[in-house]
Amino acid sequence: MPDLSAFPITKRWPAKHPDRLQLYSLPTPNGVKVSIMLEEIGLPYEVHLVDFSKDDQKTPELLSLNPNGKIPAILDPGGPGGKPLPLFESGAILQYLADKTGKLLPADPTRRYQTIQWLHFQMGGIGPMFGQVGFFHKFAGKEFADKRPLERYVAESKRLLDVVETQLAGRQWIMDDEYTIADISMLGWVRNLIGFYGARDLVAFDTLKQVPAWLKRGLARPAVQRGLDIPKRP
3-state secondary structure string, the chain? Predict the structure, then answer.
């Protein structure tokens, strides 16, 4: 049985199943990337809720695993060489899990790097821009008298959606007919933008054709449906 006691995070979130991958998360657009991935690949794991309402993300235990104080993060007892691997950043975790299992990332080198480029597109563009729309449209930023920040982030989000719209033309998924970590990385963010953030009309989502159809296909996947609700909110 693996011994995870050397990792301080297990003091706050004890592992009932230390032989399984440990996931520390919250069902946010970034968090569900990893829960969806784990559900898709069928890798046994144990989930721990990082409750932001209790400032769990600021605790020494969480910071010992992710010094950036964010979710998701994992602790894999069966990491490279059979040694435990702590890992943070959702994009890095998706790529690690794909490499570990040989799933949802093409083996062909060219297609592999093309998939990874779309993963980075999500990390560097969709996540930050959609998140800013959420802040300025739904949360505290909506009280700001100056609407230029909202207008900027809405315009950029529309542009990014257009990029995805173009990529999906004639394709079922980002990588043609192959569902990959590129799709997993984006599904929760697009869903959140038009749902929880309430920005459907702002970004003119219904003028698109490919992205709504892609989102519907993705959300219909049983693993995605399960992963979107893991871990359960308090």
Answer: CCCCCCCCHHHHCCCCCCCCEEEEECCCCCHHHHHHHHHHHCCCEEEEECCHHHCHHHCHHHHHHCCCCCCCEEEECCCHHHCCEEEECHHHHHHHHHHHHCCCCCCCHHHHHHHHHHHHHHHHHHHHHHHHHHHHHCCHHHHCCCCHHHHHHHHHHHHHHHHHHHHHCCCCECEECECCHHHHHHHHHHHHHHCCCCCCCCCCHHHCCHHHHHHHHHHCCHHHHHHCCCCCCC
